[in-house]
């Protein structure tokens, strides 16, 4: 299955990806995770993108596309993939579409999340993530077994630097301005599956798995 997840920050893209990759044995490509890894290692690329992430602004398209298309060449993408956080602009979506068409492997589905802003803000303020294995927790509704320690790899959890209220507001603004137009773009191609992401993560996952099974992706 070749799939894109579209939705505002904190809607549950990373959480859903975590369960789908286990159940469907496909590859998770999160541009946010890739960028944070570069920033943590202070690579040349990481230094170029750090200020965008810290301010909650989108990284410019020309910096995003090369890194994503290199990732798509890796053998683990042949079995199918979930894009989480890419594409984020219509220009990125058009570039992806051209790239996949050339390979004869178009997208199967675009899953679009809707969640009210106040729920998103609350989820992001209470989110904790593992910088080592990228597992996602929430101190209110999905705490780790041992406080602030990752269940999977025992690394210390962190509160992402862009998960503070002023930056979250910028991320929501970027989403509305640059990413929300993708919903129209994919609707016109009949690829969109809308989910109400304000419900519990099990209900969201069930809707998506039912849709995938029904359509045989
Ligand atoms: P990125 O890392 O992609 O951040 P994002 O899109 O803002 O999404 P998040 O990771 O914050 O949220 P999520 O939807 O994955 O929610 P999660 O599952 O963790 O991007 C970061 C930055 O990188 C961007 O701002 C930009 O600068 C740059 N960037 C990345 N890609 C780019 C691109 N293509 N172009 C340009 N720039 C790019 O859940 C959130 C919390 O809620 C967790 O605590 C979770 O446990 C909880 N939760 C999840 N689902 C539920 C549920 N159903 N019920 C209750 N709680 C839930």
Folded structure, characterized:
With 217 residues, the chain is α/β, with parallel strands linked by helices. The protein has one domain (2-26, 79-212): Rossmann fold. It has helices at 13-24, 31-41, 44-55, 61-72, 90-102, 117-125, 165-179, 181-188, 201-215; strands spanning 2-6, 27-30, 81-84, 109-114, 127-129, 136-138, 192-196. A five-stranded parallel beta sheet has the order 2-3-1-4-7, with helices on both faces. Strands 5-6 form a two-stranded antiparallel sheet. Strand 5 (127-129) and strand 6 form a beta hairpin. The radius of gyration is 17 Å and the shape is globular. The mean pLDDT is 96. BIS(adenosine)-5'-pentaphosphate binds at residues 7, 9-15, 31-32, 35, 52-53, 56-59, 64, 85-86, 88, 92, 123, 127, 136-138, 141-142, 162, 171, 197, 200-201, 204.
């Amino acid at each position: 299955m070749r799939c894109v997840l579209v939705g505002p920050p904190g809607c549950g893209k990373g959480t859903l990806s975590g369960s789908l990759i286990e159940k469907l044995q496909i590859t998770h490509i999160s541009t946010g995770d890739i960028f944070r890894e570069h920033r943590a290692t202070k690579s040349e690329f990481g230094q170029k993108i750090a200020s965008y992430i810290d301010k909650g602004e989108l990284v410019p398209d020309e910096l995003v596309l090369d890194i994503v298309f290199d990732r798509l060449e890796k053998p683990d993408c042949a079995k199918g993939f979930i894009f989480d956080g890419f594409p984020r602009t219509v220009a990125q979506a058009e570039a992806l579409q051209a790239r996949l068409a050339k390979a004869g492997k178009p997208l199967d589905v675009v899953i679009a999340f809707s969640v009210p802003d106040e729920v998103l803000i609350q989820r992001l303020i209470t989110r904790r993530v593992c910088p080592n294995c990228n597992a996602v927790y929430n101190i209110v509704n999905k705490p780790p077994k041992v406080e602030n320690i990752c269940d999977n790899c025992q690394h210390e959890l962190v509160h992402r630097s862009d998960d503070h209220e002023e930056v979250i507001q910028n991320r929501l603004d970027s989403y509305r301005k640059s990413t929300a137009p993708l919903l129209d773009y994919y609707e016109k191609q009949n690829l969109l599956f809308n989910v109400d992401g304000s419900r519990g993560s099990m209900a969201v996952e069930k809707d998506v798995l039912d849709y995938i099974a029904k359509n045989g992706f």
